[in-house]
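In the previous lecture we treated proteins in isolation. Real proteins rarely work alone, and many bind small molecules. This record shows how such a complex is specified: first the sequence, then the SMILES for zinc ion.
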Amino acid sequence: MKITNNRLVSERASEIVIQESTTNKGGEITPNFIIIHFTAGRGAESSVAWFKDPMAKASAHLVIGRDGKIYQLVDFNLKAWHAGVSRWTDTSGLNGNSIGIELDNPGRLTKVGDKYLSWFKKEYPKENVIEATHKHEKTPTYWYEYTEAQIESCFEVCKLLLQKYNIQDILGHDDIAPYRKNDPGPIFPMESFRSKLLGREDDTTDIYQVTTDNVNIRRGPNTEFDSYGQLNKGMKVEFIKSENGWSFVYVLEQPSNGLEPTYGWVKGTLLSKI
Ligand SMILES: [Zn+2]
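The predicted 3D structure, ligand included, written as tokens:
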């Protein structure tokens, strides 16, 4: 495959790329991130049809089927509507600078008796169901596995996008909208994608725990900045960077006060490494 004029072009018979079009899109963007999603849908074709429907008010640059087939709906230099309300470090509204890739997958399954059902009540074969804990949750639930063909297509596309655009990171929808979204879920090999594609073999995440109750999480690295939430003892955060004794962290649990400070600054002395 290659990218020509912001579109994927297949170069071999085994690579199937289908160009589609949708009016669910915006103006020009400069993509800096790749956001991985699952469709939570019935199949790649029905998801493509949905993203072409003006009623959906949603789209993605690509949909990848379970057979590895790739559907492109939006040129990579135009805005697709996949991220919604979202934030990553100091950027909010990721539609404005990211490429959205949707993998055909029904999403979280529910076990009813000995059956595994999607939210739209379709049954999925037990041998393809994986029990795994989402990184924002505490107990395992059921997920339908991605296929090898699908993961391989996704990997090839990411590799090309990294060559063509100034991509800084590959993220999940659940990274940029953590309390609202759970896709692509625990069964997507995000760590392996990031280490193979971004060369971050040593990029192990540093998880810290808050050591006392009512710890303010602030908009900047000192007490003059507003506090927009409080964290309690034992809550987990992911360390991103530090400045003058303050740590910029990613909050891994929803604060009990109902606020949603996904990111913020916490005094370094109130955190201990797990
Ligand atoms: Zn999503």
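Summary for your notes: The radius of gyration is 20 Å. The pocket of zinc ion is lined by residues 37, 173, 181, 183 (CB under 6 Å).
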